[in-house]
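Table S2 (continued). Query chain:
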Amino acid sequence: MKLSTFLLALALVFTGTTVFAQDLRDGSGSKTGKIESDGTVRNSSGSKIGKIDSDGTIRNSSGSKIGKIDSDGTIRNSSGSKIGKYDSDGTVRNASGSKIGKIDSDGTLRNASGSKIGSASGIKKEWAAVTYFFY
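Corresponding output:
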């Protein structure tokens, strides 16, 4: 399972909203993992693979910081360097500002060419962007 699936799941907790467990799916619709209401992320076999802190710090299963999601959509790596941005229209950009993907209103994730690469129904689009495009 991609680390990106982990981050998508974790990001949902950062919103401060009560969330119920949500399935994460790849481009073909296969379940790749799940996020629980407390921010715990599990892979498709149920193993815990990480968690997100209330301040947006993203941690792996051993508790090490692997990134940060800022409230303005800026996506940072573990050392604090900007690696991308999610725009309010669903566009996902890399650190230099080039479009690398988009998230449709229904949660469908698309690459820069428009091909479906995953889905995150019931999860905020900006957090799905973090997961699928950067981690």
